Amino acid sequence: MDEFTKLLNKYDHPVPRYTSYPTVPYWSDSPSSADWLVSLNKNLSDDKSAWSMYLHIPFCETLCSFCGCNTSITKNKSRGEDYVNILLSEWENYKNEVQYFKQRPLKQIHLGGGTPNFLSSESFKKLITPIFNDCLINKDEFEASIEVDPRRCSVEQLETLAELGFNRISIGVQDFNIEVQKLINRVQSFEKVKMVTDTSRKLGMPSVNFDLIYGLPKQSMDLFKKTIAQTISLKPDRIALYSLAIVPWIKPSQKLFKDEDLPMGADKRALYEYARTEFLAEGYIEIGMDHFALPSDSLAKSVQDKTLHRNFMGYTCKQSEVLLGLGVSSISETKDCFHQNEKVLTLYQDKVEKSQVPTLRGHKLSTDDIYYRKKVMEFMTQLEVEIDNDEQAEDVKQFLNEMIDDKLVEVINGKLKLTEKGHPFIRNACLVWDQRLRLKKPDAKTFSKSI
Ligand SMILES: C[S@@+](CC[C@H](N)C(=O)[O-])C[C@H]1O[C@@H](n2cnc3c(N)ncnc32)[C@H](O)[C@@H]1O
Ligand code: SF4
Fold first, then answer.
1. Which of 213, 241, 250, 272 for a ligand 1 pocket mutation test, highest count of atoms within 8 Å of Cβ?
2. What's the gap in Å between 71 CA and the centre of ligand 2?
3. From atom 4 of ligand 2, which residue's Cα is the shortest distance away?
4. Is 1-23+367-451 in CATH node 1.10.10.920?
């Protein structure tokens, strides 16, 4: 057995992805809607504060069998139009409760899903124009981004988005190979992805991102090499290379995958390593756990000036005091509180129509949570983190002793650092800062495996 396989046997087990700390299964001290409004008002009271907005559009026309997102499958386009009205009502309710939203700069808006381009051009205008009119926006610094499914993306939609001021587009590619695409119920041509990429650039959008996934069924190394070559031929400014998260107990469509079709362990990781070598040779910079960016892109710049941040949307270079999530299942955060909207569309809609905050759950962070959240975020973005005192150094050495022996992390010059060899195991190393999980293991199957 080679060394990497031995390491996988030891460390490839379920661990959180750390897009939040505490991770969602450990949210306990849930805020009421009133608590949540207090937290928003408090965090925006400083006149130097700023905020970001996330809008969740849950609809997709068909289900991709690998999908782990919060989706609602329908071909009925009028549902998108009705949903825009609910989103606008939710925004209206917040404006009435938190005056600061109109007084503090909005730094970033992101439309995610589901498939945001399920909405028509008309719906985009109806949704975005009043929100932008309400908000303080400095156009030179503002980032407006959207996730699009290229199969459903028209030139007209892209023109509307560019006119509205969208300057970042993220295209769901996943894999270019037709056999893999058939197995994941998502057939889309290279030409379509190229059209969306080229059109976005022609319209002046400075940043195009591709989402790719490694570990998909029948994704052999030979086929994946072609997907990587095709990706490089279009030179996206950013690439997110996600490990397929296999969570069939949450997403039953993944039960359709045959075990023998899924690249696992060392074979799966080899796909990431191959892509990484190719991207680095092309001049991309590796960011955090699973992202790459051209040096000209703001994400790469934020690594250099240590302003890279991580939240529910993944890696981002804009940090603000408040992230307000609108839409079904959306998660919001302030410095001291997480908040999630109802996950069931009818419940969400019902509360919004009654002018209530559509609270499902959340978490008020304790002083310890705030401290460890900083550690987790620093480690996930900079791959190293300060150790604050001797007692902590002892604890880190004890908890990570096997990873230190295996040369995956090192404690040096008052810092915990991930080594090059330790890169695949960043999530395992991050466990040292997860005081909640260290105190109590999750009761049921919760997280995907680390590789
Ligand atoms: C909301 S989708 C992107 C927009 C659009 N719905 C699409 O698929 O093109 C967000 C991204 O999450 C990633 N994703 C979804 N399910 C995943 C899973 N089980 N494991 C890893 N990544 C996943 C995909 O790369 C996908 O592009
Ligand atoms: S991957 Fe995208 S298009 Fe496919 S089901 Fe998930 S959210 Fe919808």
1. 213
2. 7
3. 64
4. yes
Which atom of ligand 2 approaches the CA of 62 most closely? 5
- Which percentage of the chain shows pLDDT scores above 70? 99
Report pLDDT digits (tens) over 222-235: 999 999 999 999 99
Q: For 17-57, how does the pLDDT look when each residue is reduced to its tens digit (9 = 90+)?
A: 998 999 999 998 889 999 999 999 999 999 999 999 999 99
Q: Report the nearest atom of ligand 2 relative to the CA of 68.
A: 6
Q: Which ligand is nearest to the CA of 60?
A: 2
What span, in angstroms and rounded, lies between the C-alpha atoms of 50 and 321?
6
Q: Choose which CATH entry (3.20.20.150, 3.40.640.10, 1.10.10.10, 3.80.30.20) describes domain 24-362.
A: 3.80.30.20
Binding pocket residue ranges, ligand 1, CB within 6 Å = 60, 66-69, 112-115, 147, 149, 172, 174, 211, 213, 242, 244-245
Taking every pair of Cα atoms in the chain, the longest distance, rounded to a whole number of angstroms, is: 63
Domain range list for the chain: 1-23+367-451, 24-362
Which of 59, 67, 242 most suits a substitution to test ligand 2, by most atoms within 8 Å of the C-beta? 67
